[in-house]
Design brief:
172 residues, 6-stranded mixed sheet, 5 helices, alpha+beta, 24% helix, Nucleoside Triphosphate Pyrophosphohydrolase
Amino acid sequence: MKNKKLFNDELLDLVDHDDRVIGQKLRSEVHAKKLINYRLVGGMVVNRKRELWIPRRTMHKQLLPGYLATSMGGHVAAGETYSIAFERELEEELYLKLAELSYKPLGLLTPHQHGINAFTMMYEILLDEVVTYNKNDFSEGFWLTPQQFFDRVKNGEKSGTILKRVIELFYC
């Protein structure tokens, strides 16, 4: 099934505790009802020095405006796989082609095990260059060590739960 859009709203798969599709709802409904049984995909850009490229979301974003975020990410559309969503979001947000990159899956994070808001498949992208990014998604970005990231959060920077959990689980 292709990504259906109704009134500029994408259709998302709803999943059970084991990440099996059990239904569908519009993205706006999923967020309005604060559901946690939908899918996201995310990626962390990491350089050879093991610094993470962490962007700041633009202030016009509906969710978490101005927050520090994973290097890239987004919703998995209904009928889409995690890997297809990863490839699509990577091109939309960072203008990168998956076939030209060195990357690996980090793992699936779940609301029940990891205290996050959705089933999220995370990937790591190895890249040493300065990241070119979609200015509609991000206003700026920083190469940070995990400690530098947590220092920023301690000093008042806002960050989403997924980014914090990813850094704790995979980079600390």
